[in-house]
DNA sequence: ATCAGCTTTGCACACGATTGCAGAAATACT
DNA sequence: AGTATTTCTGCAATCGTGTGCAAAGCTGAT
C-alpha cells in the first residue's frame, strides 16, 4: 500500500506538503499542489483511514446492532439507516446480535473498541440485554440510541413504536367486524405498557369480550404455530379470528389453515402485526398494523448524529414514541355466522 | 477514553509493561500482571483497535458489498457470511452498492481506505460494475472474491451458481408436465453462458417447443409484471405456464393472477427462481430452483480467508461453480387441457 | 542593500498501541 | 565478594496522517 511518504519522495517534497496538497490546503503552491494531486491520482493512492482515524480521534462510523436479519423487518430498517447515515456523512458497521451467543454485549464491545462515533442498538424480543455495556460506553462518551422498548429507559435515548395503540386498533377492528371468539398466537408481553398484547387484550376487555384463556397460545417456533392452529380448530367452539403476533407468524398460520382446508377470510379472519412487505405477498393480503418505518429510522439516525455532534438542543435523554396505524386488507371479514346474517338481510 | 498510558500511571509502570500484561506476555512479573489486569477490568479499559490496526497493519475485518437488501436473498446471505466470518475471526463491514449511486466503486474505495483485509463482492443484475476498482485493489494486495457471474472472469476469484442448469431443469419440468405454451417474465440475459434464461430457452428449443416471441416479456418494475400478466392473458392463445425470473417477481404474478380470477396451478402454472423463504410463504407454495445457500457462502468466505492468510494451495484465480436444484412444490401442474384428458382416462 | 511582509516548505510531535533492545534488578553460581 | 545468568522493566522506534511552529524563499518598498 502506497503512503504519503512514498508520494513525497516521488514528488521531491516532504510528507507534510503532500498531506496538505491532498487536503487542498491554501498553504501549498498551486503548481506543486496540482502536481502532487496528479501523482496521487495516477498512482492510485488511497488514504489510510486507520491512520487518519487514529490521528483525528474520530471514525465517521456508526455502529448498527440488529438482532437478526431473517425477519424482513430488519433488512428494511438496515437499508434506511444506511441511507440516512450516508447522507449525514457516516458509514455503517453492522453487527448481528442474535448470531453470536455473546450477543449484544460482544457487539457493543467490538464497536466501542473500533471507536465507532455512535451506536444504534435495535433490541430484540429479549429487550435490552447489554444494559451494563450500554451504560459504560455511554459513560465513556459514545452516544447510544436504542430502538425498541426497554424497561426503565429514563436515562437512555430511545425510539420506539407504541405497539399498545396498534394492538388496541386491531382489537377494535375485529370487534367491529363482529368477532367475539378471538384467538391469539403470540409471546408473553415483553414491552411493558407499550406491548401490543397489552393493548389488544385491554381493548377486548373494554368491549366486554375478554380473551378466553384457551384462546391464548404462546408460540416459540414455527412448529408451535402449526400445532397451535390445529389445537384451536379442535376446540368445541373454535375461534373466528386469529391474531398473529407478527406478520411472519401470520404467514405460517396461512399455510396451516390452508392445510386444514379453511379459507381466509371466509372461514377464518387472520390479522398480523408489523406491516412487512410480506403482508402484501400473502394471499389474501394481510390486515395488519404498522408504522411507516421511514420516519422512525429517520428519527433514529438524526438523534444519534445530533448527539455525536453535540447539536441536539436538549441534553436530557429523549424518548421518541411513534404511533402505528391499522392497515385493513383482505384477510379480515365478519365471522361466518354474522356473514350469513348479513346475507339473509340483504 | 482510557488509554494504556492512563493505566500505566495508575499502576506506576510504563505503558509497555501494561501492554505486555494485557497480552498475557510471560515477560512480566506474575503479580504485576495480575494487578494490571485487575486494574484494566475495573476501569473498563477497551483497547483502541484503531491504534492496534495501524500498528499491526491488519484489521481483521472483511468488507461485504451487497447490491441491496430488500430482496430477501441478500439478508440470508449476509447472515451466513457474518457467521462464517466471525468463526474465522473476522468482523464484517457491510456496504450496500445500489443504495448510493456511486455504487460499487465507492464501496470498494471506502473498504480499501479502511484497510479491510479482504473484500467479498456480490454482484447485482448489472454484473461487475467496478471492474477497474477491483483490479486496482487486488493489485494493491487486498484479496477480492466475487459472488455472481461476471464477464471475462479468468483473472478473478469467484463463486457463482450455474443458473443455466437451473433454467434447464425448470424447462424440463414444465415440458414433462405437458406445457407447450410457456411465458417468461424476466430480464435480458446478463450472466452469459451461466444465465438462467439461456438454459431455460435452450432446453425448450431442444424439446421442440421453442419460446414464442410474444410470450417473452421483459419487465423492469412491479407495475411491468402486472401489465405483463394481463397482456399475456389477452392473447388469442394464452400461456398455460409462466416462468418468473425471480421468486419475488413470482409473488407479484400470484397477486395479479388472483386479481384476474385465475387459480394456481389449476388455471395457470407458475414457477420461480431463487428458492427464497418467500417461496414457501406463497400459497400455493412455489415451484422454483435454488441452491442451498450455505455451501455457497461457506466457499465464498473460506476462499477469501485462505487468500488473506495466503494458505490457499493454488495461487491461480479460482472459479467455484455451484449447481442449483429443482424444487417442486404446489404451483406447477399439468395444463388444463392435459388435466381434463387425464381425468377422462382415469 | 536592507528590511518588512507574504508565501511556501519542512521539522517534529501527536494519536495509541506493539515490540526489539538495552539495561536494571534479582537470583544463582563459583 | 564477584561474576554469570535469569527475570523483569523501560526506552524508543514504528505504523501513516495531520498540524503548529519555525524558518526559508521570495517580493517589493525604502
Describe the structure.
By secondary structure, chain A is α/β, with parallel strands linked by helices. Chain A has three domains: 44 residues, 434 Repressor (Amino-terminal Domain), CATH 1.10.260; 133 residues, Response regulator (Rossmann fold), CATH 3.40.50.2300; 147 residues, Response regulator (Rossmann fold). Chain A is built from 14 helices and twelve strands. In chain A, the strands form three sheets. The first copy, chain A, has a six-stranded parallel sheet with strand order 2-1-3-4-5-11, sandwiched between helices. In chain A, strand 8, helix 11 and strand 9 form a beta-alpha-beta unit. The first copy, chain A, starts with a helix and ends with a helix. Chains A and B meet through helix 4, helix 5, strand 2, helix 6 and helix 11 of A and helix 4, helix 5, strand 2, helix 6 and helix 11 of B. Chain A binds a DNA duplex (30 and 30 nucleotides) through helix 2 and helix 4.
